[in-house]
Amino acid sequence: MYKVGITGGIGSGKTTVCKIFEVLGIPVFYADIVAKQIMLSDPLLVAGITSTFGKESYSTDGKLNNKYLAGIVFSNEAQLAKLNALVHPAVFRAFENWENQFDSTIPYTLKEAALLFESNSYKMCDTSILVTAPIDLKLARVMQRDQVSADQVKARMDKQMSDEEKAKMADHFIVNDENSSLIEQVLALHKQFLLTAKEY
Ligand code: ATP
């Protein structure tokens, strides 16, 4: 199956773009959502988190103790790297399982991941898309969507790789600046992927 990775900075609109691909019949694997789910359901991952960060990582009814874990990893790069080293391979496994459900009636799939390049997950894809938007627009979108301050959004942005760095690794680009038509850009790429996937 031909696999397309899609990423973009916070508020760039990557999920919005994925929804358009879904309308075109392309299945989308939302890596960040799956990561949250499997932190509860993947026995290997749950065991890894518990042994690395302690039993306090989960409540007695099996819920993730977000506050406790965030307290450990939020300001400590080494601890964050440890968590990522547990979560990323588990997401890769989940992606492989998810992919296996599709037959040849599906031309290609999309994998949406905020950390597509940082987690090396782009290496499991055949090509990649970077969604970009002007910083002011990204800020305003996330402040509105999540009801948070500009400083809170900036703190999240600072933790991500810059668009310039991501652009060096991306194969395709979608500009979501609310001037250029998103639908036209998605349709153009879709057409291109259909052709490439046919010869895959
Ligand atoms: P995150 O990394 O935070 O999950 P994202 O890149 O997936 O963000 P979206 O959730 O798709 O971004 O978009 C952020 C917000 O901006 C959403 O509320 C979405 O509805 C809005 N938005 C995105 N693109 C557009 C657009 N072209 N026009 C209007 N609103 C938009």
Secondary structure blueprint with pairings:
Elements: E1 2-8, H1 14-23, E2 28-30, H2 31-41, H3 43-53, H4 66-73, H5 77-99, E3 108-112, E4 127-132, H6 135-146, H7 150-158, H8 163-169, E5 172-175, H9 182-198
Parallel strand pairs: 1-3, 1-4, 2-3, 4-5
The protein binds adenosine-5'-triphosphate.
Adenosine-5'-triphosphate binds next to helix 1 and helix 6.
Helix content: 40-55%
Widest sheet: strand ordering: 2-3-1-4-5
Q: Could you tell me which ligands this complex binds, including any ions or cofactors?
A: adenosine-5'-triphosphate
Number of domains: 2
CATH topology of the largest domain: Rossmann fold
- CATH superfamily grouping of the largest domain: P-loop containing nucleotide triphosphate hydrolases
Describe the structure.
With 200 residues, the chain is an alpha/beta fold. The protein has two domains: 120 residues, 3-Layer(aba) Sandwich (Rossmann fold); 69 residues, P-loop containing nucleotide triphosphate hydrolases (Rossmann fold). Helix content is 54%, strand content 12%. Strands 2-3-1-4-5 form a five-stranded parallel β-sheet, sandwiched between helices. The longest helix has 23 residues. The chain is globular. The protein starts with a strand and ends with a helix. Adenosine-5'-triphosphate binds next to helix 1 and helix 6.
